[in-house]
Amino acid sequence: MTLDTLIAFATFCFVSSITPGPNNLMLMASGANFGIQRTIPHWLGIGIGFTAMIVLVGVGLMQVFDAFPVAYMILKILSVAYLLYLAWKIANAAPPGDADATGTPMTFLQACAFQWVNPKAWAMALTAVSVYTPTQDVAAILLTALIFGVINLPACSTWMFIGQQMRRFLTNPARLRAFNIAMATLLVASLYPMLISG
């Protein structure tokens, strides 16, 4: 990877990682509802799960989608359905008094698995592999995944900290309910680019 390509790729990694999307909106909601400590497994699951996704996409999934386009369409439908379900869960999250007793943040493994139905993660991984990976050998794919992972984790953590800071203003059940509904609405809105892409 040349220096120019590396700079362009690092910029792509940062911008795509820090802008709103399903992962970041869910991290912000989790930070607000559960605090940073309970959100860390979710955050690490995103970073590690997404990095592994880039490796697997680079190694072979792109060829599967090229050979069987219907597989990509099925994944897209499942992604939309799952994100709508998550939006419903966020909108109906427990109020502050009940959150510690009944609420549960996303676990590490759930966050890893979520990357496979996250349309923004798919777009990021496919772009990283198809545009910024100079060759399709394993070493180049691993380097691409490593660079993305190193940039993605701190960028995503910003949203967790924003949510934590908002927590002090969301002690009122009505404000928390409004916040959760807004986050759920934004999560559904984040599907728009994927749906218009065909």
N-to-C order of helices and strands: HHHHHHHHHH
Structural class of the helix and strand makeup?
mainly alpha
Strand portion, in percent? Answer: under 5%
CA radius of gyration: 17 Å
How many domain modules?
A: 1
Could you name the ranges where pLDDT drops below 50 across 5 or more consecutive residues? 96-101
> How many strands?
0
Give the biggest beta sheet. none
- The termini sit apart by 31 Å
Q: Could you say which overall geometry the principal axes of the C-alpha atoms support?
A: globular
Total helical segments: 10
Q: Percent range for helical residues?
A: over 70%
**Average predicted confidence as pLDDT:** 80
Description:
By secondary structure, the protein is an all-alpha fold. It has one domain (3-196). 82% of the residues lie in helices and 0% in strands. The chain has ten helices and no strands. It has helices at residues 3-18, 22-34, 36-67, 69-91, 96-102, 108-114, 119-131, 138-167, 173-189, 192-196. Residues 96-101 have low confidence and may be disordered.
At a glance:
The protein is mainly α. The two termini are 31 Å apart.
Write the layout of secondary structure elements.
Elements: H1 3-18, H2 22-34, H3 36-67, H4 69-91, H5 96-102, H6 108-114, H7 119-131, H8 138-167, H9 173-189, H10 192-196
Keywords summarizing the entry:
mainly alpha, 10 helices, 198 residues
